[in-house]
Amino acid sequence: MRHQPVMPEEVLNYLDPKPGGTIVDCTLGEGGHTEMIADRIGIDGRLICFDLDSELIEITKERLLNIKPRIDFLNANFKEIGEKLDALGISKVDGILADLGVASYHFDVAERGFSFREEAALDMRLDRQSGNTAADLVNNEPIEKLERIFREYGEEKNARAIARKIGEERKKGKIETTLRLAGIVESVARKKYHEIHPATRVFQALRIAVNKELEGLSEFVHEAVERLTLGGKLVVISFHSLEDRIIKNSFNYLALECVCPPEFPVCRCDKKAEVHILTRKPVIPKDNEIEGNPRSRSSKLRACEKI
Ligand SMILES: C[S@@+](CC[C@H](N)C(=O)[O-])C[C@H]1O[C@@H](n2cnc3c(N)ncnc32)[C@H](O)[C@@H]1O
After folding, report:
1. DSSP secondary structure of 254-273
2. Is residue 189 left, alpha or beta, with left meaning phi > 0 and alpha meaning psi from -120 to 50?
3. What is the pLDDT of residues 33-80, one digit of tens each?
4. With a 6 A CB cut-off, is 3 part of the ligand 1 pocket?
5. What is the position in ligand 1's atom list of the atom closest to the CA of 29?
6. Cα(248)–Cα(303) distance, rounded to whole angstroms?
7. Taking the domains of the chain in order of start, what are their residue ranges?
8. How far is the CA of 152 from the centre of ligand 1 (A)?
9. Of 231, 225, 229, 238, which is closest to residue 285 (Cα–Cα)?
10. What is the average pLDDT score of the chain?
11. 126 pLDDT above the threshold of 70
12. 105-210 maps to which CATH number?
């Protein structure tokens, strides 16, 4: 099923794209948000869309063939926003959206290795041209590191037992497929009635580790704000508490007027508030959205405005 854009109304409200505006969509995915933004900015607008996944870009490009604004598709990491905008000769933009994580496509195409419901090679790379696969991590990382990945990125309470079991199993032969890994997890953490599949958290954790999803996020927020025009908006949707915490802390820092220690009688730092936070608390989807799009359940939206 095609990816349903998360919190579509809220994204448009906070991003507030205007006719003729220039907007960066950091996470093109299946183009759901992109299409909505394109409608707002119209024929005189400009869109710059990033995605790490070259295969998905090709599919989405085809779908967006008749889109009105000029659109640049960049098969690149959005964390390189500064240098990529420089290369396009663009110094400032009116809005930036980042809808973090993976698209429905990644779970639907079994061969990408994100789903534990079908047999496939344990890959999970968004960019299939580079980096370690999930199989590389599972077979080569020390058990302690796997345990940490499962605990921190998956919030998996059986992290230690699962990591140890992987350690035993990989001695018998490389763990190369999704179903073999799911079976190993299930042998340690059996599914209880009404609970999510025990492999869900382990697969999520590996995906975050493989794609280094949390690395450089804070630097990205700083760089993105740097690139906004006055009044420009940055909107970030995250799906994981660690991710949301990084976004929240980065926004809070950028909104600070002063970072002097409290014992200083007068301010001696050069810090200036660079943003006004538009969402004191993260915005979450309404119940009817969660009903229609269960994937939106864990999403949190934060937005700020450049001042
Ligand atoms: C949640 S989906 C975006 C869905 C999209 N907003 C839509 O409505 O269809 C996230 C997308 O961002 C891409 N992605 C994740 N991390 C990325 C990164 N660091 N740089 C570029 N693209 C990334 C993924 O490949 C995926 O297609």
Report:
1. HH-S----TT-SS-------
2. beta
3. 999 999 999 999 999 999 999 999 999 999 999 888 899 999 999 999
4. yes
5. 27
6. 10
7. 8-101+214-306, 105-210
8. 22
9. 238
10. 95
11. yes
12. 1.10.150.170
Instruction: Look up tokens 């906070």; give the residue.
Output: 14
Is the dihedral angle over the CA atoms 53, 58, 63, 66 positive or is it negative?
Answer: positive
Q: Which of 7, 11, 51, 129 to mutate to test the pocket of ligand 1 (most atoms within 8 A of CB)?
A: 51
* Global model pTM greater than 0.90: yes
Question: What pLDDT is recorded for position 223?
Answer: 98
CA of 31 to the centre of ligand 1 (A): 9
Say yes or no: CB of residue 25 within 6 Å of ligand 1: no
Cβ of 84 below 6 Å from ligand 1: no
Give residue-wise pLDDT tens across range 75-121. 999 999 999 999 999 999 999 999 999 999 999 999 999 999 999 99
- With a 6 Å cutoff on the Cβ, whether 250 touches ligand 1 is no
* pLDDT tens track for 265-294: 889 898 999 999 999 999 999 999 999 998
- Closest CA relative to residue 210, chosen from 301, 106, 281, 109: 106
> Which residue lies with its CA nearest to atom 3 of ligand 1?
29
Using the mean position of ligand 1's atoms as its centre, give its distance from the Cα of residue 10 in Å. 18
Q: What is the CA radius of gyration of the chain?
A: 21
Residue 220 CB less than 6 A away from ligand 1 = no
For the 8-101+214-306 domain, the top CATH level (class) is alpha beta
The answer, yes or no, to whether residue 128 has pLDDT greater than 80, is: yes
